[in-house]
Amino acid sequence: MVYLFFVLGLIGLWLGADTVIRGALGIARYLKMSETFIGATIVALSTALPELIVSITGAIEQRAGLHTSGLVIGNIMGSAMGQMSLILGIAGLLKVLDIRKKEIISNGGAMIASILGFWFLAQDGIISPTDGLFLLCGYVLYLFLLSNNEHKITRFVNKYRFRKKKIVKKFHTKQMWRFIGEFVAGLIIVTWASRVVLTEGLVIAQLLNMSQVLVGIIMVGVGTSLPELVVSVSAIMKGSSGLSVGNLIGSSIVSILLALGLSSTIGGWVVPRSITTFDLPFLMVTSIIVMLFLITRAKLERKESLLALALYYGYIVLKLQGF
Q: In this structure, which topology does domain 2-320 adopt according to CATH?
C-alpha cells in the first residue's frame, strides 16, 4: 500500500500540474495579460509546480518536527539531473533537436549560474533562510532578463497550449469561472499529492534502508519531472525542438532558484556533504557537456542523446554505490 500511495501521489502531481496550467493560462488570457508576463511567470512556473509544492510542503512539515531535508534536496537534484540528461536524452532520441544558439547560450548560462550558486551557498552544509533570499534574488534577475526577450516568450507560450487562432477568441464569464475552478482544483490536487509523496517517500526510505536523498533523487525527482517530460515530448511531436529544450532548461532554473530558494526561507535545509562533493559537480559537468553539444552544432543528435542518457545511467549507478 505504501508503494501504491506513492505512485498515486506522483500521478496526482502530474494531473494537478496539468490542470493548473490550463486554468492559469485561461485566466491570463481572459484578463488580457501580456505575452511576456504569461510566459515569464505562468508557463515557466507551471511545469516546475510539483517541485515547488513538494519543497514548500517539505519545509512546512520540517517546521512541524518531521525531518525532510534529504528528501527535498534529493528531489531538487533528481529533477534537475533528470531534465538535463534523462528527459533531454529521450526527447533527442525521438527527433534530432534543432535550436537557436542565442537562446541556448543565454538560458544555458543562467542554468549553470544557478547550479554554481547552489554549490557555493551549500559549502557550509546548510541552505539558510538568508541563502534562500539570495537564490530568490537570482530568480528575480533571471525573470527580468527573460522578460526582455519578448519574441522568445511569445513563441514559448503560443506553441504550448494556445495556438494563435485560439488566442484571439473572446472568453465569456462562464469560461473564466471554469478556468478559476481548474486552477484551484489543480492546486488542491498538487498540494495533496505532494504531501502523499513526501510521507510515503519517507516510509519507503525506511523500508528499503535507503537515505532520503537517494529516494528523493531516484523516485521523487523523476516523478516530479513528469510535467516536463509530457510537455517536451508533446513539443517534439509538434516539431518544436526549441520549446522542448527551453522548457527543460527553464524548469531546472525554477527548481533550483525558486523552489529551493522559497522553501529554504521557511526554515532552511541541511545539505549532505555528498551533494556538494559529487551530485552538484556531476550535474555541472553534465549540463556543460549538453550545452556544448547544443551550442557547437545548434542541435542535439541521437548519438549525443544516447550519451546524455548514459550520463544519467552512470549517475544513478554511482548513487546506488554510495557516492
A: A middle domain of Talin 1 (1.20.1420)
